[in-house]
Every structure is written in structure tokens, then in C-alpha cells.
Specification:
The structure is a homotetramer. The first copy, chain A, has ten helices and 13 strands. By secondary structure, chain A is an alpha/beta fold. In chain A, 58% of the residues are buried.
Chain lengths: 332, 332, 332, 332
Amino acid sequence: MKIELHSEREFDIIAIGRACIDLNAVEYNRPMEETMTFKKYVGGSPANIVIGMSKLGLKAGFIGKLADDQHGRFIEQYMRGVGVDTTQLVVDREGHKTGLAFTEIKSPEECSILMYRDEVADLYLNPSEVNEAYIKQAKILLVSGTALAKSLSREAVFKAIYLAKKNNVKVIFELDYRGYTWVSPDETSAYYTLVAEQADVVIGTREEFNVMENRTDGSNEDTISHLFKHSPELIVIKHGVEGSYAYTKSGEVFKGYAYLTEVLKTFGAGDSYASAFLYALISNKDIETALKYGSASAAIVVSKHSSSEAMPTVEEIEHLIAEHSKEIVANQ
Amino acid sequence: MKIELHSEREFDIIAIGRACIDLNAVEYNRPMEETMTFKKYVGGSPANIVIGMSKLGLKAGFIGKLADDQHGRFIEQYMRGVGVDTTQLVVDREGHKTGLAFTEIKSPEECSILMYRDEVADLYLNPSEVNEAYIKQAKILLVSGTALAKSLSREAVFKAIYLAKKNNVKVIFELDYRGYTWVSPDETSAYYTLVAEQADVVIGTREEFNVMENRTDGSNEDTISHLFKHSPELIVIKHGVEGSYAYTKSGEVFKGYAYLTEVLKTFGAGDSYASAFLYALISNKDIETALKYGSASAAIVVSKHSSSEAMPTVEEIEHLIAEHSKEIVANQ
Amino acid sequence: MKIELHSEREFDIIAIGRACIDLNAVEYNRPMEETMTFKKYVGGSPANIVIGMSKLGLKAGFIGKLADDQHGRFIEQYMRGVGVDTTQLVVDREGHKTGLAFTEIKSPEECSILMYRDEVADLYLNPSEVNEAYIKQAKILLVSGTALAKSLSREAVFKAIYLAKKNNVKVIFELDYRGYTWVSPDETSAYYTLVAEQADVVIGTREEFNVMENRTDGSNEDTISHLFKHSPELIVIKHGVEGSYAYTKSGEVFKGYAYLTEVLKTFGAGDSYASAFLYALISNKDIETALKYGSASAAIVVSKHSSSEAMPTVEEIEHLIAEHSKEIVANQ
Amino acid sequence: MKIELHSEREFDIIAIGRACIDLNAVEYNRPMEETMTFKKYVGGSPANIVIGMSKLGLKAGFIGKLADDQHGRFIEQYMRGVGVDTTQLVVDREGHKTGLAFTEIKSPEECSILMYRDEVADLYLNPSEVNEAYIKQAKILLVSGTALAKSLSREAVFKAIYLAKKNNVKVIFELDYRGYTWVSPDETSAYYTLVAEQADVVIGTREEFNVMENRTDGSNEDTISHLFKHSPELIVIKHGVEGSYAYTKSGEVFKGYAYLTEVLKTFGAGDSYASAFLYALISNKDIETALKYGSASAAIVVSKHSSSEAMPTVEEIEHLIAEHSKEIVANQ
């Protein structure tokens, strides 16, 4: 099965949601209390994904709201610098801040994030700032779950989905769940369900699908059985090192495997996975290949220091896949 | 066309949303500044509708949240007294208040309402307080637009709709727009659209449909053309004294006429209309007849002092319709 | 001892704080659930006090903020009607509401109030709306504790006190504690202490002084020992039916006795007490006489239905005092 | 004139207020957009002052609230490491954050700060967390103006001042005005005035005194004429490079001069000034000498990268003063 995309569109993908600042520990393998220097990168799941896709040669755009300060301007400059269209990045005029994520890397297995998400500009994106003429130029609209956490950003996303469906733009929903910004599990579940039912492709970890279903013991079978009654054609459920599963409405199931690499930290795995997986779909590759692209891209990013700058090129991804194929042949 | 309802259900209708207190001017035909005494009634659109339907002989239930005070207890006692099932009326434990509506009747044409809707208990209904076992006992779930104005009531309504659709309960969406509680037109439009697309029947005034569409110059044709692409089977659009239109998905259009009566005030017209219209649908009458029931019920309520206590019986409605039929015959 | 007041001032008293609406049960001696009709009066401690003093023949003014609605306009009209200067009653332009108090009279001993104090206009009085030219025309500034419950009203009161002291206007602090509007006992205690230390006269019940001291077992001795180190010259502590005590900085103590009357409800006792007590002070009577005026006025108001309209005249007060003097003589 | 301090107290100084994180540009003399690395320091005016005083050999303690995260723990560890007593640093349990200040150094003359102050832990210090037994062990209580910006921190400061005055602890008020956290100039003015009137020593820039007086054209004469009617004995008003003035209640005026140095950035000048000035007062030096200590300390800190770590020793301060005295002699 392949996802049928509109072929005559200026943008391969337009993402909507948060773009913020990662402050990554320069001195790592220690608690953050002992880290004295931090390096600044652009961060935020949908921003990382479009930066990754831009690096893979696709034409990407972004709809979002930035703080009217040095961090906001840095984000715009950086994204523009890597080729992302930033004409729909609105500047907040009400004093809201850029979201921050300080990363702590105690060890490759013990990573955590200290988030600053109070009164952040991205959650103040307004429905009136979502533009139909822009969205209708895209093959794909990528929606990030975090943008649903608060009004008015939440309603801006609903409007974007409404416009995408009206204009035959495929909607990809990346669950991207960040507990910090949500008030209650009931609220998260309500909006995740509403959006997932309207999306064409849904991507998330098993834990994130559990959040959507407001249960702790969800199963992939229940998840797909419910969602395939609605709009989705393709559902990707990630199970960490055990790999991932792609389900199609027509009943196919594909399994993807994680590539073993030297892990520096776990941040950025999901975003790099999504960007390469979507790259493959847009490039008209089959789903099995897309799963390999996702895994390879994730393996590369977790071995490096950042989430955005570390995004690989097509050559790097294909090189990793080829290397591992040889190993597999050699091991047979 | 008739709406196919599940025949084996304990409740004809279950409504979700606000129940509050009306304080109606005892001395009227003057500005409220000169009114010194107020009479207390139960109010709130969905509460009025189920009270009306209960009086029409149907079995009705209510899902809502009441303040833990004398006004909250009065509402529960009154609704129970007229036969409404109040087992799902949850008592708020966080100090929220009962919504109030002081009515001013300067003249039959100049009526206004002074609303108290800050921190009201009904908007704190929680998704976890919405019960699947209860909803699946109903033929119809009535959703009132005001309940969408704030979290968590908003998410409680989304959950109720999700459970209704899962259990083959028809969803009626009464737009019931009250500007006071909403933050922005964009927000209202986003949620009204989401709910209307999922409902089986949508009822509102032309002005309320304009609010849903976030435009001032909406047309019935545009409205039905959009909504009939989604779930709705029946859409009723009211145009005040010019009457109302009922549109079916299969392409029928019915016009209903307003009955002329002596008007004391305009409050309660919409609620009494909805209760009698829905009564007729549930009683398996055709849509033309249902439109007459709605108009007759509205005509009776606007000639009386309250919205809830004034709800007519079936005999009163049928008597008014019969009287007017004679006039029409006489006029021919 | 007498309080030395500036003799050449246009206003005997200017009060600052809340003016709101009382909705008193027309059918009483029952739970409010069974009361179907409510009668509207102006209410709020400082408003009642100046209405009472105006009725006693003094020249009073009021600084406050009113909702831009029918209730707000009624308050202004009523106060103006009884002779209070309302030129400093500012109209709120941000949609805030008039505070409400529904009174429940189960029996003379069991009275309670259902308060609506969320987002009320009076708490939005702004320091910039407090006018030095106005305050300096007064002999006395009356500050009500409730006005300290929230910013910006709180800061408006601090500014008024600052201006009063600068212009040799005596500051009377009526503790008027209403738990509903306060966030924490620590907060209340902090501001009550700050204001009491700056006031010239402090009036409250023993329970209210305990709130100020953030303890449950306060004693009059501790209270006066602390406050007389600061500005206060006169402190009145009320102990309900046991009567009240007036302490002067110079060491005098006066005891006042409650008059026995037929009690309809307990509301309004404190306000009528304060208005007659202050009337007596302003009229240059001694403290013992002032205590009698306060008690007589309270006795009259608790036998009637409202708090504001029931405020007695000088004749009624003096008549009651005279009657009781005869009884006492007769009993000797 | 000298300030009479209690000689038998365990702590020379206890400060109350914010302790937070500075993130200083590693690559500077450029806009922050081009700074890619930030170095972490403890920051916040009262924290800097006690760190400075501890380095000068005094015994200092701190009352404040820290986030329950890596930044909060770093602050506690650092302050403890330089000898500050941290037993009264409470850990917030409600998810509040550590305040942040990103510093931008475009040039020595163009410095700015990007503040993160939404929902910061320090503003949630609670009056119940202020301990009389602790405060009464101090010679001096240092109050920072920023701690007055919000409830409950504001009320915690009022309680601390109340306890200080009760226990004969001198109150120093450092105006430390940060516009970002305040809602309105009226509010700032109200609380700055209340605290300044109760303090024994008040220190601030001319601009900060203007904020206190809610005017743009304040004069030192007006300021001292008002404040000397209340508690203050000593008032220090700083005029940037023009130097500073110290006024005593008994009528003396001292002028202090700024030392010329190579300036890297302007941050930290006020805090280093205050710490050395107070050190001199506590060490029983006269006011003229104290002014020199303040200026010398400020000159040293503005030539270095941080505000806290750069705090000088007594030797460095006295060396600078001596060097400059030679120059002055040489220039005569």
C-alpha cells in the first residue's frame, strides 16, 4: 500500500506547532547540577521534523508563533537557513516566551528534560493566523500533539485540519505527548481521539497511544480496530528497541527493526524517525522501506549531541541501511 | 423522512449541559433598575428542554454539575419533582456557583438578560463524570452549545458524544449560543463545527449558524451543503418570526410558520420549540408536524412569565394547532 | 477621650470599598430552597454604613467601582437618592459584575448568606481612580477590610490611606472579614495588620481580630497591646450578645451592652452599629454614648428585613436608648 | 553617623527573596541570536548580595523557595559551598520553575537581559515558611523589591519585616526593581512605599525611587523629605556614573564616586555595590568609607563575566581603593 499524495503541490510538507530552544548539556554523563555550560539548538518535535526533511531535500514550511525576543529570532533565522519556509511564523506581541528544554544526559540510558513551557508563545498561535491559501499548497500537513495542549493553539490546529481536508491535503498526526503542558488525562484523551479520527496517518509510541485511549494496558489491535473505522489509512506504533509496526486500513502489517548504534542520548529519536519515514512515503517508497529509513535516521541522531543539527542526509541513511544489510547477509 | 431511533431504550432523551437559576422580574415592562422583586425558576437551555419534554410525557434524564448550595439543591429538587431523572447530577465540591440569569422585560420587544456565568459549576463537569452505562440507555443525547464554552465541560461533552455514537444513540446538537462565556469567535467556531459534523440533528437560529461558520452573511444553502457531507441527517434553521426550515440529507425542505400570540417576553422560545419538536420526532410524527409542535409550544411559552414552569402539555399544544388550522380554513 | 476631627471639611465621612446587591428572602423562616421570591436592596458593609450615616443627617461620600449594568446603575441611583455623594463611583468597563448576597433566614438564630463574589467590579477599583482632592475634603476615611482581598482594589485602599494620613483625615478601619474572597489566612493577616497599624480607629468582632492575628485564641489585651504601639487611638472589639469594648490609647476601657429586641435576622448588625457609633463620634459625643448609639442602631436593624433601607434615624435611636434607660431605672 | 546594629547575633545578615539562574553569553560582544553557548551561574539580587558578603567574610543566611529540579538543587549547593546558610531554603512542591536570566552583551554599553519569570518558585514563598526563630538571630534583614511582585511572596516579606522589627533586626530595603514581574506601576508604588516607610536603610537607583513614587521626575530632596518622616535612618540613591548619595536622618549628605574601570558588562553592579556597602556598615566603618567599598566592588564585578562568582574579596576592594587614592594624590 502507498499513501496517495497530491503530486502538484509546492510544499512536500507543512508542519504546525511548536518551535523552541534546546539547551543541551555540554559536559554530559553527569547530573545537570554539574553541567556548567549549555549549547543552544532549535528544538520542538514538528520543527525538528521539518528541519530533518529539509535536509533530506524536501520542500517544507512551518506554521507557528515565536516570541518577540532573541530566542524567537534565532529560531526563525536557523529554520530559514536550512531551507524551511518561514513566512507563516508569526511573531507574538503579548510578551510570551520561547519554550526551553534543558537536556540532562546522566548516561545513554538515563536522559531527562527540564522543560520551560509556562506562557510559551507557540501555544498562543491563533486560528486567524492559519491561512487556507498556504495550506492548500501542501501535500502533507503534519500536526504535533503538543499543539493541542491549550487554547488558542488547539483551535488553530483544528482549523488547519479542517482546511487540509477541504483541500485534499493528507493529515499526519504525530502524537508527541508532553505531559507537562496538559491539565488532565481526560482532556488529552478527548483531543487526541478527535484528531486521530480525522487524520490520514497516525504515528506514536505505544505509550502515547495509551495516553490517547486514557488506559495503561492498550493493545495495538484495539487501537487500529477503533481508528480504522474513521479516516486513518496508516497507523505506526513504536515499541522502542523492539521496533515498530505499521498497519494499513487494508489489513497489512509491517514490522520495522531498530538499528543498533552507539547511543549518546535518547532525545530526538522520534523526530528523526518521523522525518525519514515521511521522506520515504513522499518519495513514493513502500512502507517496509519507509520503516527502515525511520529506524536508520533515529539510530544516527541518538549517537549525536543535538536533535535538529544532527538530522542526517539521505546518503547517511542509505549508507547505514546498506551496512546493516551486509551484516545481515554476513550473519546468515 | 423520519429519524430512526432505537426503540428499546429506557430514556427517550438524556441532555448534557447547564442547569441554572432564572431570576425573573416580578414588576416588568420597565428597566430592571426599577424592578425590586425577582421570582426564582430553574433555567438553562438543556434543563428547560428536558423539563418541557418531561411535561409532555417523555422519560428524560440529565447529566450536569450543580453547585453545593441552596440554588443547586433547588434545581435538583425541582427537576426531580417534574419527573426528570437526576441521578447523574453531580454536586461540585470546589466552591463553584450556580449560574444566574436576571431577566429584564422593558417591553415584549425589548428583553435582555443579565448573566452571571463566572466560575459556574456546570462548566466544571468532568469527563470522568460522564457514564457510558447511562448514555446507552437513551434514544437521544441532547447536547447544548453552551457546555462547549470551557474545559472540562467541553471535553465531557466530547466524551458523551463519543459514547453516544458508539452505542447507537442519536446526537441532537442545539446550538444555544451565549456569547458571554466564550473567549473568541474562532474558538466557538472550531468547537461548534466539530460537534455539528458529528451530530445527527442540528437545531439553531440563522444567527447561531453564522457564529458556527464565523461569518455574518451565512446562507442556509452553504450550511446544509457543508454539514450533509458529514453525519447530520436533519438540520433545523430558525428565522424568528419568518418561521423555520427543516432540511433533510435526502433533499427535502420543510417550512414551519410562527404562530401569532400575545407576547409577554421572548425568553424561552427556543427551548420550548426544541422540546416540542423533539417530542414529535420521538413520537414518530413527520417533520412537518414536528415543526408545528415546535412553533405552538414556543407561542405558548412567550406569552407566560417563566421558561421552565410555563412549558405546555401536549393538549395545550394540540389545541393551539387546531385553533390555528380553523383560522386558516376560515381565511381561505 | 474624644477623637479629634478636622472641623472644616465638606464631608463628615468618605468610605471606600464595595457596594453591591442584597437579595433578601421574601418568604423566610425556611431554607432558601423554599424561598421563591427575593427582594433587592443595596448592600455591602461600607455602602450600608454611609447610607446609615446619611440617614442620620451626616454628609457622606463613597469611592468605589460599579458594574456597567442594571444592578450597578441601581446602586448609584439608590445611594444618590438617600443623599450620599456618588461622584467618585467609577463605572467598570471590563465586564465585571455586581457582587450579590442572597440571604437565607431559617430562623432568627440561623441566618446565612450565599455570596457571589467572583470577578466583581468593586475589587477592580484602581489606585488611579482614588483622588487626593476628594479625600482631603473629609473628616474621616472609612476603610472596609473586604476591599483588601484582591489587587487592584487592595492597592487603591493603600493609596487612599496614604492620602488620608497626608491630609490629616482620620482613618477608620472596619475589619469586615468575608472569608469567601480571600486566598489564604496568611494573606489576610498580612494586610489586616498593615492597615490596622496605620488606622486611627479599628472596629471589629473578636473573631475578626483573631483573623487579623492569624490565631484562634486571641485576647483583647494582646490585640490592644500590639496596636497601641502604632497609630490607633481607639479600638472597638465586639463580642456579640455579650456586648462590646472600646479601648483608648490613654488606657480607658468602656463596655457597651447589647439591647434586647425581637430579632428577625442577624445581617446588618455590624454595619448599623458602625454607622451610629461613628455618627456619635463625629457629633462630638463621648465614647460611652457612642457605644449606646451603636447598640441601639444594631438592635433596630436586626428586627427589620433589610440592612440598608432599615437604617434608623437619630430619633429612633435616641428613643430606644431612652426606653431602655427607663427599664433599667425601673429594674433598680 | 553609624547604623546601630545588635552586636550579639549569629548572622550578620539574612536576605529574603529570589535566587535564580543566570545564563551568561559565552560568546559576547554580539547579539544573543549569535551566542551559541551559555554559562550557568547563580543569580538574583539578594542571592548575589549574600554570596558577595559571605566572600567578604561575613556570616549570611537566606530565606527563599527553590524549584524541585536540577537548577534548584544547583543553587542550594552553590550557596552552601560559599558558606551561606541554606537551612531556610524551602523546596517548592507544586512544579514551579527556577527563574532564568539570559544575558546579552552586545557591547559594554549595550547589555540586556532576557528574563524567564512566569510561575517561578521564588514568588511562591509562603508566610508560613518565614520563621521568627531564624530572623531574630540576625543583625540585618535584607529585603529585595522583586520579592514584593506577587502573592504569596509579598506577604512572606511583610511577615519577615514584621518579625524583624519586633526583634530589633535592622531592615535594609534594596529596591531591585524588575518591571517584568509587576502588573502595574500603581501596584509597585503602593508596596515599595509601604516597605520603604518601614525600613531602616533604603538603597536604590534614582530610577528605582521614581518607580516607588510613581513619577518620572522625582528629586532626592522629595524622596528623603518623605521617607525621613517614617522609619528610615539612611537612604542611598545611586546616579550611575555620576556616583551616589547617602543621606542620614540627622541631615548629613555624603557623595560617593564611581571608579573608572574596563567594563565588560553592566550586570551585577548594584548587587556588588550593596554587598560591599553593607559589609562596611556591619564592620563598623563610617558611611564615606562604605560608599567607597560599594563603588570599588561594583567596579570589579562589571569588569568580569558573572555577577555571583565575580564577587571580590576584601583585599581586592581595599587594593582598588588604595590604587585610586594614589592616582588622586598624583593628580593633585
